[in-house]
Amino acid sequence: MGTVFDIKRFAIHDGPGIRTTVFLKGCHLNCRWCHNPESILPTPEHIFRAARCSECGLCFAACETGALTEEDGRHRVDQEKCNLCEKCADACPSGALKISGHKAEVAEIIKEIEKDTLFHDESGGGVTFSGGEPYLQREFLKSLLVECKKREMHTAVDTTACLTWETIAETLEFVDLFLVDLKHMDEEKHERYTGVSNEPVLENIGRLAELDQRIIIRIPLIPGVNDDWLNISSLGEFLSPLGSVAQVDLLPYNEGAYDKFSRMIDDRRQPGYSRPAAEAVEEIADRLRQYGLNVTIGG
After folding, report:
1. Angle in degrees, 0-180, between the axes of helices 278-289 and 229-239, rounded to the nearest 10
2. pLDDT tens for residues 73-91?
3. Could you say which of 8, 161, 166, 202 is the most buried, measured as most Cβ atoms within 10 Å of its Cβ?
């Protein structure tokens, strides 16, 4: 059993063809620009959309443990009291309060994926496991991959690759494509902005390439963080010799993250970034193409 926070159907940016993307909860990085803050905690959590709230108070009345309270006009949850019974969310008539993440069995997820098999087959698509960091649910992810390959599905894993090689290696025979996030080439800056070193990331990308595993590198473009020419040149020099890198996706920062952070009840730090100019993104793409890389914008 694992914890899933979303299943996205008809995804077209998470690998080839039309795909079903399964988002597993939990991430050990703390990227300042995170676009899915609801993916960070490994456990289910409350999401509150203040604009939808009718202030009816039914959610507070439904909470039998007294975990849900209001402070300065915001909903608060005492995690020590909360038993995640979800009665508060069930009682909310406007959908303002929801629980992000739920426990699921492998068979349950496979059943959902199989609903899209026709679209996978006709488009050359398949299933992508994303997060968070899906490898943090190591056994659950492997079981899902094994079941997908039994059904001859094309499989992809979207990963930070900030893991032990052994963790990745035990799934190699069940993964057709690795989507690997590469945040920054400078180790000190990578650690400053994400909380972890990039050393295992670079090592694992190199090992995957040595084994001729198909790889798509995904680079989130954050103005003032990793869009300088030194970093872009370092990326090009690192990636150009790796023959199994099929594609490099530039992912311009999306300011939709602001809204997502505002929904988090635990007051997580909101990002302070803006979307890069389209002209700047095109220049970066052109620079990377000079290294012989197949570069796309937006995946």
Report:
1. 40
2. 778 888 888 888 888 888 8
3. 161
